[in-house]
Amino acid sequence: MPELPEVETVCRGLKPALVGQEIVKADVRRKDLRRPFPRGLKACLESSRIAGVGRRAKYILVHLDNGFVLVIHLGMSGRIVFQPHSYKPQPHDHFILHLSGGQQVVLNDPRRFGLVDLVPAAELDSHQLFAHLGPEPLSDCFSGPVLAAALQGRKTAIKLAIMDQHIVVGVGNIYASEALFMAGIDPAMPAGEVETKKVEALAAAIKKVLQQAIRAGGSTLRDHRQTNGERGYFQHHFMVYDQEGAPCPRCRRAGRKKARIARIIQGGRSSFYCPRCQI
Ligand SMILES: [Zn+2]
């Protein structure tokens, strides 16, 4: 499933190709994905011009010059691919924008957990998709003190707390494990009991792992666009994620007796951590 860094990478790839383009034709090829395509979608999009491309959590926001925002979520399996003018739709191509420059922007989503919506720009923050969302982790709205305030008094495990979209958006399972390792925090510790200094370190670690992943993803988007293949978004080496049984990279560096990365299940998902240096 695409996580925040992959969606950010997609947005950065879309921006230069989309901004300033007129939507000549919007081809809505079925009536729904996870939920129905909004009414009037085609009419609203056609002959509008794309004014900007942004992101909120894992939603891609395409700002139109008519005051509406086209909202796209990639779900589990969605991909956005550029195709030439002559391209003929393939199976699972559900939504296609034909741009004035001749390119087609194709949303392909075999499992159809994705979503397309249309929201007036002025109502974006209060819309049901966005109203409950916490701060963007890479923005100045998210910091150690902000995170500390959100965690205060919480008994939920810290790993589950930082994956809670009300607290901070876009920290998925992989990045939660990695950030907790970086900050030296036991993923099972009750969120409200993590000491202030470690919460500061955790906020910084969340920013760092996401930025690293965005940098890693940037290079493979080009492959993605060139080949239109099924390649993963990026091949990233993780410190602890999916490393069960491997020697802990930090313990090893410190020259101490090797500890091995352990795996526990939290909220139905695997958490990976070093039992020695995450306390
Ligand atoms: Zn360790």
Bound compounds: zinc ion
Strand order of the largest sheet: 1-6-7-5
Q: Enter the CATH topology name of the largest domain.
A: Helicase, Ruva Protein, domain 3
The sequence of SSEs as H and E is HEHEEEEEEEHHHHHEE
- What is the beta-strand fraction? 15-25%
Report how far apart the termini are: 30 Å
- Kindly provide the name of the CATH class of the largest domain: Mainly Alpha
Number of strands: 10
> What spatial form do the alpha-carbon principal axes imply?
elongated
The helix-and-strand class reads alpha+beta
* Low-confidence runs: 218-234
Q: Largest sheet, if any?
A: 4 strands, antiparallel
**How large is the count of helical segments?**
7
> Helix coverage percent of residues?
25-40%
Q: pLDDT average, as an integer?
A: 90
What number of domains?
2
Radius of gyration: 21 Å
Could you say what the CATH architecture of the largest domain is?
Answer: Orthogonal Bundle
